[in-house]
Amino acid sequence: MSNSTFEQIGKVLREHQHFAILGHVRPDGDALGSQLALALSLEQLGKDVRVWNEDGMLEKYSFLPRAELLTKSPARAHHVDVAIALDTAIQNRLGTALAAVGSAKIWINIDHHLSNPGYGDLVIVDVSAPATGEIIFNLITSQGLPFNHDIAENLYAAISTDTGSFQYPNTSARTFEIAAELVRAGGLDVGKISRQLYENYPRRRLELLRELLRTMRFSAHDRVASFSLSLKTAADLSVLPEDNEGLIDHLRAVRGVIVAVFFEELVDGKVRVSMRSKDEAVDVCAICQKFGGGGHTLAAGARVRGSLAEVEEKVLEEIRDVLKRGS
Ligand code: AMP
Ligand code: MN
Ligand code: MN
Q: Contact, 34 vs 154, CB < 8 A?
């Protein structure tokens, strides 16, 4: 990625009128905040902007400024001038949002995933960025695109959530500089945003954690920790898919654990695998790619066909092999 790609994207944004801004299935704060921030900037330029994903806005992120702009992708395909995929490692993780774009003259792909193959006409995949929100900030400031409080708050939420509150290793001096600029120029109330992001969970999320801890397993001399969620437990507790975001951090936080894994049974006969590593030498993106998934070196995922027990066995075995080879 070079400055000239930022310039080309800036030019495309100014010279077209109809945009669709898309994000990945099972969205997170980075996808939602980045999508809204870019949409609001384009809106200020007088553009017609659709903001779609497969799931729509999540209840827990509905406090984000102008959250109502983000909707489920429509069943009928629309024609736009420019389609922009944000924070989405592979195009099919756009889910129904991909089909909602009937045609687009130009596809833009802005992301920070190692496994992104670079689909699209104009591509920025910045693996050093801890959040797509950081790249959107760079785009807005380098190209002189509109910026205001609402854009700042969305970008702050994107960066805060994808860095684990500015804790993960790719959090750089630049990340803090951007956060400072967002707080200063956007006039943000950090305490208020943090309360909305991290101290506003529904009670059922903690009840879910209690059930997950009952299934907790350790292996490979306590270097691998996992837990799992069956469809039955999810139904018994009436949990939403978004309730489990971040619970895997309880496993990662244990001393000695190198790889943490969360298995979630899905309705389509697959299991969602979510993986975290604490050691750069143990690349969970590579492990997940073996199962058709992807992500980052230290945080990755996959959807694997099979029963919960089968997928657990297969995936844990692969992780143990990788650890054995490395030690
Ligand atoms: P998660 O564990 O769902 O929080 O995802 C961790 C990281 O891996 C995120 O950056 C995702 O974009 C990526 N990821 C998760 N699931 C998949 C998948 N099925 N295919 C490709 N990348 C994925
Ligand atoms: Mn994401
Ligand atoms: Mn991200």
A: yes
Cβ proximity of 22 and 98 under 8 Å: yes
In whole angstroms, what is the distance from residue 115 CA to residue 296 CA? Answer: 7
Please give the domain boundaries of the chain with CATH numbers for all domains.
Answer: 3-198 (3.90.1640.10), 203-326 (3.10.310.30)
Q: Strand, coil or helix: what is 158? A: helix
H helices of 45-74, in order, are: none
Q: Give CA–CA dist 41/7, Å, rounded.
A: 16
**Low-confidence residues of the chain: pLDDT under 70:** 1-2, 327
pLDDT tens-digit map of 83-127: 999 999 999 999 999 999 999 999 999 999 999 999 999 999 999
- 3-state class of 327 per DSSP? coil
Distance, CA 221 to ligand 3 centroid (Å)? 31
pTM for the predicted model, two decimal places? 0.94
Mutation choice for ligand 1 from 24, 94, 296, CB with most ligand atoms inside 8 A: 296
**What residues pair up with 265 in beta bridges, in sequence order?**
271
Query: What percent of the chain shows pLDDT beyond 90?
Result: 98
C-alpha–C-alpha distance, residues 246 and 45, integer Å? 36
256: left (phi over 0), alpha (psi -120 to 50) or beta: left
Residues 6+ apart with CB under 8 A from 209: 247, 250
For ligand 1, the distance from its centroid to the CA atom of residue 295, given in whole angstroms, is 5
* Residue 155 alpha carbon to ligand 3 centre in Å: 11
> Minimal CA–CA distance to 205: which of 225, 234, 230, 228?
234
